[in-house]
Amino acid sequence: MDGKKRILLVEDHTLLRQGLHAMLESEPDLEVVGEAEEGRKAIHLAATLSPHLILMDLSMPGTNGTEAIIEIKRRHPEIRILVLTVHKAEEYIRAALGAGAEGYVLKHATRDELMLAIRSILGGKTYLSPDVADQVVNGYLGGGGRGLHGGTAWESLTLREREVLKLI
Q: Which residues of 70-104 are buried (b: 16+ CB within 10 A; e: fewer)?
């Protein structure tokens, strides 16, 4: 074993998937072990390829990214998942983090930011793009820290969302 970290790419846009593959393979410590264009295939490949990290889009045909994250984390909690998406609306962020993703990066990120996110997550940390982190914190602080149902915003968060907030 050469010590490279195994990555599974899950992205429905072929050109983007190929570009990510080439970019990741150019890193000496990373190896792309598989690709999927939809969530059901990602669930299967997670079981057969045992990646260290899955780089996952959210909007895909068939089984979407959030559904795939839930199933992968249920079966393989040791696999780290980084969401790479165009969606910065709070409901997408909450769904992905609540499903078990360790990171959330927007597709307008730079190569350097994506590499930082990947290495942070492989190192056992959580990573949120700055825009996403701002939105999470502002959502928490909005309304005096109160959630939609009268409880505190903290009480309305899932355990995973609380873990992420503690890290930023």
A: bbbbeeeeebbbbbbbebbeeebbbbbbbbbbbbb
